[in-house]
Amino acid sequence: MKNSFLSIFLLFVVLLSYSQEKNKPILKPYKVGFLYSFGTNENFFFDDLDYTYTTSTYKAQAFFNIGNWKNIDLELIIQPQIQFIKHQLINEQFITPDQENYLEKRTEFTQVKNMNLYGLEFGFGAKKKLTEKLNLLGAISLGFSYIDARTERLAKGFTFIENFSLGFSYKTLKRYELYLGTSFGHVSNLNFQKPNDGYNILGLDIGFSYLLK
Fold this sequence. Notes:
Blueprint: H1 2-18, E1 20-21, E2 24-25, E3 31-40, E4 51-69, E5 72-89, H2 102-109, E6 113-129, E7 134-147, E8 157-171, E9 176-188, E10 199-211
Antiparallel strand pairs: 1-2, 3-4, 3-10, 4-5, 5-6, 6-7, 7-8, 8-9, 9-10
């Protein structure tokens, strides 16, 4: 599954970069990067006492210019990623007796679970230059993913990922930028499978990018 997502991403980038019209690329990335995010459901915005959920997310990034509006640069961000997740049900009463095999599920889900999520995320970003080296960035994104284990909140298999991020990038050298920000993420499957209570995560993001031009 991970290799499938990576293959789709590489194919998409190649098609965008090398599709020719009058011997010029239609769209090619102006910047590539890498981002690490640590997220948890336990934070000051929301803290569901029924369960614990933490994730370490690693994203490769490709940035494409798509325009400018009132001195704000607009960009498309493509982000293949893997998330390493730790989950545990705290309140076993969340699994009610009317559910099939509820006692077995309580035993299974109250144990710590380590899971992986493989995803491909498409973001729409806006960048505002604050100084010669400092930029304010915001992005909203949506993607699709695969989670390799079930919990009491989400079935194993196909899911959607949604994300909102806000942060700052700082140009350290001519072609290098560092990023520091925060993000709010949601994982669910739009009721394609049951259960679908999903997860809400607040994260801290640290990134590095390289300008190609």
